[in-house]
């Protein structure tokens, strides 16, 4: 028979974690989500409740981390919950050109960042049109015509599923802080080591252990012009929601 004192202590611990998840700082919430995921049933119930309570508000990477913990759980009840309440994840998959971003969402939720990076380029080729789809890369001039909504969808997916570490907006903000110095940016995000470019794919870090802004690659093997066009896009203007 379970000792009532032990059971009481466990319940108190779970309630403490619930309070931390709701009212804690982002750092506390980040750690609490990991702890709740390890508790299985009781912890996962709290994570599901947490996501439901926040559903009406714009998703942050905290929502993404909670969703990812649930998404990668094999319990049927959890998968049914996600399918019923978050069939497309926590980010609206908005597209002005009817691009399907569900495959990208699923890869990022699975934390398969290498495949997600390849899918990101594929989706940008779809935005650019048939010629880009055939050649499998994009011209910087094609970026200029990308819809704001689509770039924001791609960016938000990366942001919320990487604990805020990855995304075009993260790269752009760092670039601005570095005085728009490309060489400083390449070194900071580990795309270059000294005079040597990081070799694709083996030398890139396809996990959250990577430096901030390391991903997505933004077609970096073709020089600065594509990423410069991405950074100049109006999707990141003060009048646009990131």
UniProtKB/TrEMBL annotation:
Belongs to the CpcE/RpcE/PecE family. CDD domains: GUN4. This is GUN4-like domain-containing protein. Residues 95-234 form the GUN4-like domain. One of its GO terms (molecular function) is tetrapyrrole binding. It comes from Mastigocoleus testarum BC008. Residues 5-87 form the GUN4 N-terminal ARM-like repeat domain. GO terms for cellular component: outer membrane-bounded periplasmic space.
